[in-house]
Amino acid sequence: MDVPEITDEQFEWLRAHVHKATGIKLGDAKRALLVSRLTPRLRVHGLGSFADYIWLLARSEGAAELHELVNSITTNKTSFFREPHHFEILVNRVVRKIGEHARNGGARRVRIWSAGCSTGEEVYTAAMVVREALPGLGWDIRLLATDIDTDVLEQGEAAIYDEERVQDIPCELRSKWLEPAGEGFYQVVSEIRELVTFRQLNFIAQPWSVRGPFDAIFCRNVVIYFDAPTQQRVYRGLAERLGTEAYLFIGHSETARNLEDLIESAGPTTYRRHTGPPRRSVAPRASVRPNVALRVRTLESQRPRRVMLGRAIVPSNVRASLVPRRSTHSLTSIAPRPLGSPGGRLVSDHVIHAGGVFVAKGPGRVRTLLGSCIAACIYDPIAGVGGMNHFMLPHICDGVQSARCGMVAMELLIDGLLKNGAQRDRLRAKVFGASYVLASSHQDIPAINIAFIRQYLGESNIPIIAEKLGRHHGLQVVFEIDSGRAFVRELPATDDSAIIGEDLRYARQMHKCPRSQSGDPEAP
From its phi and psi, is residue 231 left (phi > 0), alpha (psi between -120 and 50) or beta? Predict the structure, then answer.
């Protein structure tokens, strides 16, 4: 069965239907994703078109299919010990304080909610660290895990994960809290599983079946898919279910706004319930943050044809200057100034290839060579934080979620910037690449990449202040991390051969993918 086409009217109907049922807002860039995720549902029902599928949803029996539609389109990206600083706060500020109260005669009770739990890695991570901090008998520890997707809830309850997914668990905890479950698989031990209750919850359905109060709530990378009014309602509902001085953890692409009567900021993506009088919103003042070395998950190739997964720690010489330099918003084609800077400071220089992401704070440069790929250079001119990625296509068709995929590369880059002190509303972007260096039969790759990056940054409210896209030769890009200055040189035609080989491989990979009406590769 071929991939069915979807008309503009059918796409509008489906995304309106999804938004009404779930609050999830599907932008125009998600059209190809919607087609790829729903095509299997058409096959299940033996339908040949999206018109037939919409007719099914509109009939009375469509209520059951709506449930399957939601399961198909929801994104369930998660991992054990993701954003580890949240779990450090959970132990050091929440659990240990509960332990101190208990030693003074207080209740030996812990309540944690993982809202948008996906396949359970987040809630089981929380359960492990709580159990480690509160050993022994007599503790009343309960964790609630909710999600709108019933398929992932079933996986979470089973608590069985393959060997690759458990690698982020520290060895001592892995040996203690996991047990073999067949070749290459592990299951969370019953002592931890019994602490967790899984339940379906749709944030749009009112009233919620969850009461509280909770000592901590995790709701990370969930409301980013909602429109602004829905985000506000969800965050308020979560904040109202926090106990006294309890903590709310959110994603690094999210901000809980206009809730000063309930919560206060307690660090990046962390909020605390306060018990004082209502607080008025005050415009934040620019301040210089202390020097922080960023530890960020990076996908960076060791040689042009091989992408490796690893972690990069920013060297100690990549530090914030005492006074962040003002961005000049310049885009020139001249060579950057030599390594080093006024005052004798050394400037770190880094090279990335396809699948690379680099983020740092302070003086430093990152450079790359581009053919039909895109490099997004994003920075906060006040914080002196910046970074670059290098991706080949919006979506990867080999089933591998890596930074070769634009969606992943952009998430890694923005998350890394926010972790290192950038503020989302101050981010500025410069984008380069998507050159037409391939044969005419493959010239849809640059157009697809250009449409994707402009759409993504537009929906993310990150302004593009400079770009060099769609040229006829490859580009050499050097980006100054702290200042936002970009130096771009168009390569002579004689140098294009250095990158055409890679681009041909990307083109072959793209043309293996199912095609949508718009020609955009489908998400895996």
Answer: alpha
